[in-house]
Design goal:
Blueprint (H helix, E strand, L loop, with lengths): L2 H12 L4 H15 L10 E5 L5 H9 L8 E3 L6 E6 L4 E7 L11 H10 L2 H4 E5 L13 E3 L6 E3 L4 E3 L2 E3 L1 H8 L1
Parallel strand pairs: 1-2
Antiparallel strand pairs: 1-3, 3-4, 4-5, 6-7, 8-9
Bound molecules: zinc ion (2 copies).
């Protein structure tokens, strides 16, 4: 798929056109051209180190989504994207290197065009990395919290003075 078409899809999902979505789209373009594909069943896992506009391009264009669990967010504040392909056991990491010297004030539209004209290699530091993807999303039992009675994933229940409670109730207890 052409980059303009990818960008169009991503911006419809995201809600607006912006340089962030262009950066995410360019990262996806590289992934699609290098052995990663749209992933309805968790074949591809994306690990992102930011939660800005760019990540919406990854969700809609690669189907690495928050709900399926094949989008993992680390809150590191870095424009870095790692893709794992469970089929080929390949992994690649793209780190944004901000190659743009925005000399004069460019409009958003001009910035977007500039980003989309670049080769991914010009915009990202790209390297193959070890294949050690996060585990598949697990389905596990839910147990009611002793305090609020809301069903809670068993692995997220906290133990407090002999009671099992959800994280929300636990935090209130600890205050
Ligand atoms: Zn945006
Ligand atoms: Zn609770």
């Amino acid at each position: 798929m052409e980059i303009s078409e990818l960008m169009k899809k991503a911006s419809i999902f995201h809600g607006h056109l912006c340089p962030g979505v262009a950066i995410g789209t360019l990262a996806v373009k590289y992934a699609l051209d290098n052995g990663f594909q749209f992933s309805p069943n968790e074949e591809v896992v994306a690990v992102v180190e930011n939660n800005n506009c760019s990540v919406d391009a990854i969700q809609v264009l690669l189907s690495c989504t928050f709900g399926k669990g094949n989008l993992i967010f680390h809150d590191y504040g870095k424009n870095t994207y790692t893709f794992y392909n469970r089929k080929t056991q390949k992994a690649v990491r793209l780190a944004y290197k901000n190659p743009f010297k925005w000399k004069k004030k460019l409009s958003k539209e001009e910035q977007i065009q500039l980003i989309l004209q670049k080769k991914p290699e010009e915009v990202f530091e790209i390297k193959n990395v070890e294949f050690d993807p996060p585990n598949f999303a697990r389905i596990e039992d839910s147990i009611p919290c002793d305090i609020c009675k809301e069903d809670t994933m068993s692995s997220r229940l906290m133990d407090y003075q002999g009671s099992k409670m959800c994280i929300d109730c636990y935090k209130k207890m600890k205050k």
